[in-house]
Amino acid sequence: MAQAAASTCEICTAGPGVHYCHDCDQFFCESCKLSPKRATISKNHTLLSGEKINNVENWLCTEHKEKHMMTNLTESTLKLKTELVNNIESKLDTSNLNLSRFQENTNTYHEEVKAVIKSLTDDGNNLKQLIDEKVESLIKEVQDTEKVDKQHMTANSNEHKGVVEKCKTWQQNIREMENTADGPMLQKLKKLKTEIDQLVLHRIPDVPSTSYQNKKHSDTEISNLFGELQYR
Question: Distance between CA atoms of 118 and 137, rounded to whole angstroms?
Answer without folding.
Answer: 14
